[in-house]
Amino acid sequence: MVDKLRVGVISSTHGIRGEVKVFPTTDDPARFKSLKKVILEAKRETLELTVERVKFFKQFVIVKFKGIDDINDVEKYKGAELWVTREDAVPLEEGEYFIADLIGLTVMTDEGEKLGTLKDVLQTGANDVYEVAMSGGKTVLLPVIDECVLDVDLEKGEVLVHVMDGLLDL
């Protein structure tokens, strides 16, 4: 499991008083309202920053950090990633997982065969889709629905799936 989770990327400055426009990479941008501190990772430096205030504008989150009060002080952080520690992450409901914890898990079928390795999680709106890299370079997309994904065991490092008819027809 990873120690920190990415919540956003600074896309640009906002105004002249040190605010930044953040493109959220979390599935719940409202989580920024309760965010107290972040880890900023830029090209050549890593900083722990305290969030002073947050507001929302279109698909962006406008963030003001304590102690950064001028556009010149924050301009160099365009493209920097914002991370939170696992302790500061939003608590998950039963059956929910951080995508970072799922990537790399072994995907096994309910018939005991190794299907491949979980490569990515696509968020489609209706349901998530697991992208599984199979041996030989092929990829299969599995819908994250009860009929297909039977169990996720992070400790064991496995996802147990039922391959529905037609999913492997390429």
Automatic annotation (TrEMBL):
<dbReference type="InterPro" id="IPR011961">
    <property type="entry name" value="RimM"/>
</dbReference>
<dbReference type="GO" id="GO:0042274">
    <property type="term" value="P:ribosomal small subunit biogenesis"/>
</dbReference>
<keyword id="KW-0963">Cytoplasm</keyword>
<keyword id="KW-0690">Ribosome biogenesis</keyword>
<keyword id="KW-0143">Chaperone</keyword>
<dbReference type="InterPro" id="IPR009000">
    <property type="entry name" value="Transl_B-barrel_sf"/>
</dbReference>
<keyword id="KW-0698">rRNA processing</keyword>
<feature type="domain" description="RimM N-terminal">
    <location>
        <begin position="7"/>
        <end position="88"/>
    </location>
</feature>
<dbReference type="GO" id="GO:0005840">
    <property type="term" value="C:ribosome"/>
</dbReference>
<dbReference type="InterPro" id="IPR011033">
    <property type="entry name" value="PRC_barrel-like_sf"/>
</dbReference>
<protein>
    <recommendedName>
        <fullName>Ribosome maturation factor RimM</fullName>
    </recommendedName>
</protein>
<feature type="domain" description="PRC-barrel">
    <location>
        <begin position="94"/>
        <end position="167"/>
    </location>
</feature>
<dbReference type="GO" id="GO:0005737">
    <property type="term" value="C:cytoplasm"/>
</dbReference>
<dbReference type="Pfam" id="PF05239">
    <property type="entry name" value="PRC"/>
</dbReference>
<dbReference type="InterPro" id="IPR036976">
    <property type="entry name" value="RimM_N_sf"/>
</dbReference>
<dbReference type="InterPro" id="IPR002676">
    <property type="entry name" value="RimM_N"/>
</dbReference>
<dbReference type="InterPro" id="IPR027275">
    <property type="entry name" value="PRC-brl_dom"/>
</dbReference>
<comment type="similarity">
    <text>Belongs to the RimM family.</text>
</comment>
<dbReference type="GO" id="GO:0006364">
    <property type="term" value="P:rRNA processing"/>
</dbReference>
<comment type="function">
    <text>An accessory protein needed during the final step in the assembly of 30S ribosomal subunit, possibly for assembly of the head region. Essential for efficient processing of 16S rRNA. May be needed both before and after RbfA during the maturation of 16S rRNA. It has affinity for free ribosomal 30S subunits but not for 70S ribosomes.</text>
</comment>
<dbReference type="Pfam" id="PF01782">
    <property type="entry name" value="RimM"/>
</dbReference>
<comment type="subunit">
    <text>Binds ribosomal protein uS19.</text>
</comment>
<dbReference type="GO" id="GO:0043022">
    <property type="term" value="F:ribosome binding"/>
</dbReference>
